[in-house]
Amino acid sequence: MRLVLTKLAYLHASSAVHENRNPGSFLKFKKNHHIHLDNLYKKVYKSLEKNLPSFTKLNLKEPELNENHFNCLVHGSVWEPNILFKLQNNSEDELKDVIFINYHYAYYGSPTIDLQKYIHSIMLENCNEAEKDLVEFYYYKLKDLLQRMVYKDKIPKFEEFWMQYNHNRVFGLQQILLINPFVISGKLQSLDVMKGIPSDDLCDEVFKNQKVIKYLNSTLV
Q1: Which residue ranges form the domains of the chain, and what is each CATH number?
Q2: Residue 33: HSE in the Cβ half-sphere, 13 Å Cα cutoff
C-alpha cells in the first residue's frame, strides 16, 4: 500500500516539475474523461434506491480543475487491476516495485483524485480511521520529492492539501458506489467499466448482496 503511494508521489511530483519547467505541456490532458461513470451511476441508482431504503441520491459530478490547487498529471484510475506488482527474488510476500498501467483516463488535475480512488479501493473497512494517516504519508513523500526536484512553485502545507483532498471526495464516492460493490459481490468481471452498461439484473444481484449492503451502510454513514 505504502509502496503504491510512494510511486504515486513520484509520478505526481515529476509531472508537476515538468509542467513547472515547461508550461502548457499537459494542456491536452485538461479534460474530464469520466463521462462513462455518469452512465454507470444512472444504471445502478435504481438498484441502490430499491435495496437501500435510506440511500439518498448523491451528486457525483466531478469538480472543475482548480488552478489554485496543486496540480499534476493524474493517472485517473489507480486501483488493483491497473497496478503491476514486482516481488523480491525468492519471495512471495515482499514487494520490490509497482508499475501503473492503462493511462487512458490520465488527465491534468489534483493528485488527491488518485488518492481518493486508490485509498477507497483498498480499504473496504474502517477507511476513515486510516485515511488521514495514508494521505499524510503520501504528502510528505510528495513534498520531499518536489524539494529534491527543485519545484519552483508553492508547495501546499499539509492542512491545505488535506482540504484539497476533501474537496475531491466525490472521486472516493465514485469508487465506493460504482466499483466496490461489484468487487465485494464477486461480480467485477461481469461489469464493463469502460462502457458502464451493467444489466438491470446484474445491478439488482449486486446491490441485494448482504455484504454489499453492510459495506454501503457502514461506509456512507
Answers
A1: 1-220 (3.90.1200)
A2: 16
Task: Check if the beta carbon of residue 145 is closer than 8 Å to that of residue 189.
Answer: no
C-alpha cell at 218: 457502514
Residue partners of 205: CB distance under 8 A and separation at least 6:
185, 187
Grid cell digits, residue 127: 477507511
By C-alpha distance, which of 138, 141, 160 is closest to 149? 141
Q: Which residues of 193-208 are buried (b: 16+ CB within 10 A; e: fewer)?
A: beebebeeebbbbbbe
Q: Which residues lie across from 137 on neighbouring strands? A: none
Instruction: List Cβ neighbours of 166 (8 Å cut-off, separation of 6 or more).
Output: none
Task: pLDDT tens for the chain, 221 residues: list them.
Answer: 889 999 999 999 999 999 999 999 888 787 655 555 677 777 788 888 887 777 777 777 777 888 899 999 999 989 888 999 888 776 666 778 899 999 888 989 999 999 999 999 988 776 666 899 999 999 999 999 999 999 999 999 999 999 999 999 999 988 998 889 999 999 887 766 555 567 888 888 999 999 999 998 888 76
What pTM was estimated for this model as a whole? 0.89
Q: What is the DSSP letter of 81?
A: G
DSSP H helical segments within the chain, as ranges? 2-21, 35-51, 112-122, 127-148, 158-167, 169-174, 180-184, 200-208, 210-219
Kindly state the cell numbers that stand for 165. Answer: 483532498
